[in-house]
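User: I'm writing a tutorial on reading structure tokens. Could you give me a worked example: one chain, its sequence, then its tokens, then a sentence or two explaining what the tokens reveal?
Assistant: Sure. Here is the example chain.
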Amino acid sequence: MITLKARAKINLGLSILGRRSDGFHDIQSVFQEISLCDILSISIKPGNSVISLSCSDSEIPSDSSNLAWKAAEAFLSSTGEALDVSIELEKNIPSRAGLGGGSSDAAAVLKGLSQLTGISDIDLNEIARTLGSDVPFFITGGAAFIEGRGELISEIPAVPFHAVLIHPKVRISTPWAYSAWDRDMSTSLTINTMIRHYSPSSAVWHEGKPFPHNLRNDFLPLLEKHYPEIAELAKFMTETKCENWGLSGSGPTFYALFRSKSGVRSFSRILHRDFTLCRSAETAGASSNG
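And here are its predicted structure tokens:
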């Protein structure tokens, strides 16, 4: 058996460049892993490719519709291994929250099965691309500049920070969000091109900002139109004069970034109790002081 952490990610900005001929969308975004994570315990035995999945969250499907299950199927199909796979999933990352929980679970299964079987000469990224646009990022994790539909990944230095995650009382399907964007927003598109950053010296805070990231998310104006809860939270974030906040993925999770734990504590004290989920998280290298 092997036990792995499947970390959540937040989007430090997200630009939608347009719909592609294959139905997907070209984007630019910075993905950053954070400490919030699911825990997966994976075991194998000789068998007939029987997969079993148990999950601590009863609202999460434990069948072949779960990305972790699909990842196990894809690995066995690609390798031709005749194995039974058992997966125990401790779910801590909320679903349909813009945090990449399902994609991270899938990547963890691929990496876990590679380690358990000793098969290291298989291209996990190729399998990951068949499972979802965000899954390839989680094969390596860390921080990356993302382009295309999510398959073009350039590793970048991570900006160390502490974060407060705020989840309003809604869930948002990513396919719905892109469909709604096509319908409501694409005709008034102003392309917000993000800048590539590769230099290690760029991974710092500068003048109170997590330089050099632009935290704007093109989904936010759309979601404010359709969800009063999100409009209310965006207004709250603005009125509190929190300098560094954004929306992750297609929502609905917001984040506020701070250089120290003291910033997290101060901000947490003014949060409304109406928000159903408020958690703290951090990146690797974030200062433990204050």
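What the tokens reveal: Strands lie at 2-19, 25-46, 51-55, 83-90, 143-147, 152-155, 162-167, 245-247, 254-258, 277-282. Confidence is low (pLDDT under 50) at residues 191-202.
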